[in-house]
Specification:
Coiled coil: 196-223
Strand order of the largest sheet: 1-2
Protein name: ENKUR protein
Domain Enkurin: 136-228
Structural class: mainly alpha
Keywords: Cell projection, Coiled coil, Cytoplasm, Cytoskeleton
GO cellular component, one term: acrosomal vesicle
Largest sheet: 2 strands, antiparallel
Length: 230
Protein backbone atom coordinates (compact mmCIF):
# COMPACT_ATOMS: atom_id res chain seq x y z
CA UNK A 1 0.00 0.00 0.00
CA UNK A 2 0.96 3.65 -0.52
CA UNK A 3 2.54 5.54 2.34
CA UNK A 4 0.18 7.69 4.40
CA UNK A 5 0.56 11.45 3.82
CA UNK A 6 -1.38 13.88 6.00
CA UNK A 7 -3.54 16.44 4.27
CA UNK A 8 -2.27 19.13 6.71
CA UNK A 9 1.34 18.69 5.65
CA UNK A 10 1.51 21.81 3.48
CA UNK A 11 -0.30 23.88 6.08
CA UNK A 12 2.15 22.89 8.85
CA UNK A 13 5.14 23.59 6.58
CA UNK A 14 3.76 27.05 5.75
CA UNK A 15 3.18 27.89 9.42
CA UNK A 16 6.70 26.80 10.37
CA UNK A 17 8.28 28.99 7.65
CA UNK A 18 6.05 31.92 8.62
CA UNK A 19 7.09 31.81 12.29
CA UNK A 20 10.82 31.46 11.49
CA UNK A 21 10.86 34.51 9.19
CA UNK A 22 10.70 36.89 12.19
CA UNK A 23 14.02 35.63 13.60
CA UNK A 24 16.13 35.86 10.42
CA UNK A 25 17.67 39.24 11.45
CA UNK A 26 19.50 37.91 14.56
CA UNK A 27 16.79 38.56 17.13
CA UNK A 28 13.09 39.50 17.45
CA UNK A 29 11.40 42.23 15.46
CA UNK A 30 12.01 45.82 16.62
CA UNK A 31 9.27 47.32 18.82
CA UNK A 32 8.68 50.82 20.19
CA UNK A 33 11.01 51.63 23.10
CA UNK A 34 9.39 53.36 26.14
CA UNK A 35 10.16 57.06 26.56
CA UNK A 36 12.82 57.94 29.21
CA UNK A 37 10.54 60.68 30.54
CA UNK A 38 8.10 58.07 31.91
CA UNK A 39 10.40 56.88 34.68
CA UNK A 40 9.14 55.58 38.02
CA UNK A 41 8.86 58.47 40.47
CA UNK A 42 9.03 58.37 44.24
CA UNK A 43 5.75 57.73 46.11
CA UNK A 44 3.92 57.35 42.79
CA UNK A 45 2.41 53.98 43.75
CA UNK A 46 1.15 55.05 47.17
CA UNK A 47 -2.67 55.54 47.51
CA UNK A 48 -3.74 59.16 47.46
CA UNK A 49 -6.63 60.48 49.54
CA UNK A 50 -9.38 62.54 47.98
CA UNK A 51 -9.09 66.31 48.56
CA UNK A 52 -10.92 67.47 51.66
CA UNK A 53 -14.04 69.50 51.04
CA UNK A 54 -14.31 72.86 52.72
CA UNK A 55 -17.17 73.27 55.15
CA UNK A 56 -19.87 75.48 53.76
CA UNK A 57 -21.20 78.39 55.77
CA UNK A 58 -24.31 77.61 57.81
CA UNK A 59 -23.74 73.86 57.69
CA UNK A 60 -24.71 72.14 60.90
CA UNK A 61 -21.95 70.28 62.71
CA UNK A 62 -22.48 66.71 63.70
CA UNK A 63 -23.13 66.06 67.40
CA UNK A 64 -20.02 65.00 69.28
CA UNK A 65 -19.88 61.57 70.84
CA UNK A 66 -18.20 63.02 73.94
CA UNK A 67 -20.73 63.68 76.74
CA UNK A 68 -21.32 67.30 77.74
CA UNK A 69 -20.42 68.96 81.01
CA UNK A 70 -23.99 68.79 82.32
CA UNK A 71 -24.18 65.01 81.79
CA UNK A 72 -24.80 63.04 84.96
CA UNK A 73 -24.34 59.28 84.82
CA UNK A 74 -27.01 57.03 86.25
CA UNK A 75 -25.97 55.71 89.63
CA UNK A 76 -26.91 52.09 90.05
CA UNK A 77 -28.56 51.14 93.28
CA UNK A 78 -26.85 48.34 95.10
CA UNK A 79 -29.08 45.29 95.53
CA UNK A 80 -29.10 42.97 98.46
CA UNK A 81 -29.13 39.61 96.70
CA UNK A 82 -29.25 37.67 99.97
CA UNK A 83 -32.58 39.21 101.00
CA UNK A 84 -33.88 38.92 97.43
CA UNK A 85 -33.09 35.22 97.28
CA UNK A 86 -34.60 34.65 100.72
CA UNK A 87 -37.87 36.36 99.72
CA UNK A 88 -37.96 34.33 96.48
CA UNK A 89 -37.53 31.09 98.43
CA UNK A 90 -40.22 32.02 100.99
CA UNK A 91 -42.82 33.14 98.46
CA UNK A 92 -41.97 30.52 95.84
CA UNK A 93 -43.78 27.22 95.37
CA UNK A 94 -42.06 24.16 96.78
CA UNK A 95 -40.56 21.72 94.32
CA UNK A 96 -42.43 18.50 93.80
CA UNK A 97 -40.46 15.34 94.58
CA UNK A 98 -39.47 13.24 91.58
CA UNK A 99 -41.00 9.80 91.23
CA UNK A 100 -38.40 7.06 91.10
CA UNK A 101 -38.25 3.32 91.55
CA UNK A 102 -35.72 1.26 93.53
CA UNK A 103 -35.07 -2.12 91.94
CA UNK A 104 -32.13 -3.54 93.92
CA UNK A 105 -31.16 -4.07 97.55
CA UNK A 106 -28.26 -1.65 97.17
CA UNK A 107 -30.67 1.22 96.52
CA UNK A 108 -30.18 1.60 92.78
CA UNK A 109 -33.00 3.75 91.48
CA UNK A 110 -34.17 5.26 88.22
CA UNK A 111 -36.68 7.94 87.38
CA UNK A 112 -40.18 6.80 86.42
CA UNK A 113 -40.80 9.77 84.14
CA UNK A 114 -38.16 8.72 81.62
CA UNK A 115 -38.61 4.95 82.06
CA UNK A 116 -41.95 4.64 80.26
CA UNK A 117 -43.73 3.22 83.35
CA UNK A 118 -45.14 6.56 84.50
CA UNK A 119 -48.51 7.59 82.93
CA UNK A 120 -47.17 10.79 81.44
CA UNK A 121 -48.98 11.12 78.13
CA UNK A 122 -52.48 10.09 79.21
CA UNK A 123 -52.57 13.02 81.63
CA UNK A 124 -52.03 15.58 78.90
CA UNK A 125 -54.87 17.88 77.91
CA UNK A 126 -54.60 16.96 74.24
CA UNK A 127 -54.43 13.19 74.85
CA UNK A 128 -56.56 11.33 72.32
CA UNK A 129 -57.12 14.43 70.18
CA UNK A 130 -56.41 14.04 66.49
CA UNK A 131 -53.35 16.15 65.53
CA UNK A 132 -53.88 19.15 63.33
CA UNK A 133 -51.67 17.85 60.53
CA UNK A 134 -53.71 14.62 60.35
CA UNK A 135 -56.97 16.57 60.17
CA UNK A 136 -55.52 18.86 57.53
CA UNK A 137 -54.24 15.90 55.51
CA UNK A 138 -57.64 14.17 55.70
CA UNK A 139 -59.36 17.34 54.52
CA UNK A 140 -56.92 17.63 51.62
CA UNK A 141 -57.48 13.98 50.67
CA UNK A 142 -61.24 14.45 50.85
CA UNK A 143 -61.05 17.58 48.71
CA UNK A 144 -58.83 15.81 46.17
CA UNK A 145 -61.28 12.88 46.07
CA UNK A 146 -64.17 15.27 45.47
CA UNK A 147 -62.25 17.03 42.71
CA UNK A 148 -61.40 13.68 41.15
CA UNK A 149 -65.04 12.56 41.28
CA UNK A 150 -66.10 15.88 39.75
CA UNK A 151 -63.52 15.51 36.96
CA UNK A 152 -64.68 11.91 36.32
CA UNK A 153 -68.29 13.04 36.11
CA UNK A 154 -67.31 15.84 33.74
CA UNK A 155 -65.38 13.41 31.52
CA UNK A 156 -68.33 11.03 31.52
CA UNK A 157 -70.64 13.87 30.53
CA UNK A 158 -68.32 14.84 27.71
CA UNK A 159 -68.35 11.28 26.41
CA UNK A 160 -72.17 11.41 26.42
CA UNK A 161 -72.62 8.61 28.93
CA UNK A 162 -76.16 7.79 29.96
CA UNK A 163 -76.92 7.28 33.64
CA UNK A 164 -79.41 4.64 34.66
CA UNK A 165 -82.13 5.90 36.96
CA UNK A 166 -82.92 4.09 40.19
CA UNK A 167 -86.06 2.58 38.71
CA UNK A 168 -84.24 1.32 35.60
CA UNK A 169 -81.42 -0.05 37.75
CA UNK A 170 -83.93 -1.95 39.92
CA UNK A 171 -85.70 -3.37 36.87
CA UNK A 172 -82.41 -4.51 35.31
CA UNK A 173 -81.40 -6.12 38.61
CA UNK A 174 -84.73 -7.96 38.88
CA UNK A 175 -84.44 -9.16 35.28
CA UNK A 176 -80.93 -10.45 35.89
CA UNK A 177 -82.01 -12.30 39.03
CA UNK A 178 -84.96 -13.82 37.19
CA UNK A 179 -82.65 -14.90 34.37
CA UNK A 180 -80.28 -16.41 36.95
CA UNK A 181 -83.13 -18.40 38.52
CA UNK A 182 -84.18 -19.76 35.13
CA UNK A 183 -80.61 -20.71 34.22
CA UNK A 184 -80.07 -22.26 37.64
CA UNK A 185 -83.29 -24.28 37.26
CA UNK A 186 -82.04 -25.54 33.88
CA UNK A 187 -78.67 -26.37 35.45
CA UNK A 188 -80.34 -28.30 38.28
CA UNK A 189 -82.43 -30.23 35.74
CA UNK A 190 -79.33 -31.70 34.09
CA UNK A 191 -78.89 -35.47 34.45
CA UNK A 192 -76.61 -36.75 37.20
CA UNK A 193 -74.52 -38.85 34.83
CA UNK A 194 -72.95 -36.83 32.03
CA UNK A 195 -71.54 -39.32 29.60
CA UNK A 196 -71.91 -37.62 26.21
CA UNK A 197 -70.18 -34.68 24.60
CA UNK A 198 -73.45 -32.80 24.12
CA UNK A 199 -74.29 -33.00 27.81
CA UNK A 200 -70.80 -31.74 28.75
CA UNK A 201 -71.12 -28.78 26.37
CA UNK A 202 -74.58 -27.96 27.74
CA UNK A 203 -73.28 -28.05 31.34
CA UNK A 204 -70.28 -25.82 30.53
CA UNK A 205 -72.54 -23.35 28.74
CA UNK A 206 -74.91 -23.12 31.73
CA UNK A 207 -72.01 -22.69 34.15
CA UNK A 208 -70.60 -19.81 32.07
CA UNK A 209 -74.03 -18.14 31.97
CA UNK A 210 -74.46 -18.48 35.74
CA UNK A 211 -70.98 -17.07 36.37
CA UNK A 212 -71.60 -14.10 34.07
CA UNK A 213 -75.01 -13.40 35.61
CA UNK A 214 -73.58 -13.53 39.16
CA UNK A 215 -70.81 -11.11 38.13
CA UNK A 216 -73.33 -8.67 36.58
CA UNK A 217 -75.64 -8.83 39.60
CA UNK A 218 -72.76 -8.18 42.03
CA UNK A 219 -71.51 -5.25 39.92
CA UNK A 220 -74.93 -3.56 39.77
CA UNK A 221 -75.59 -4.10 43.50
CA UNK A 222 -72.16 -2.69 44.41
CA UNK A 223 -72.35 0.46 42.25
CA UNK A 224 -75.42 2.67 42.64
CA UNK A 225 -74.50 4.87 39.65
CA UNK A 226 -74.41 2.88 36.41
CA UNK A 227 -73.35 4.53 33.13
CA UNK A 228 -74.11 3.24 29.66
CA UNK A 229 -72.06 4.31 26.64
CA UNK A 230 -73.82 5.15 23.42
Amino acid sequence: PLRYISKFREFVKHEAEKNKSQWKTMGPAKVAVPSPNNFLQKHSKEPKLAPRKKEQEGEKLRPLSVPGRTYQPVIRIKKNFINKNAVAVITGKPKKPQNFCVDTRQGDKYLLETSGLFPKYINKKNYGVTPKYVTQRNEEMKREEEEYQASVLEQLKKKSMKTLSEEERTNVLKALKKKWEETNHAFQALPVIIDTRYKQMQKEELELKLEQLEHDIAAIEKHKCVYIAN
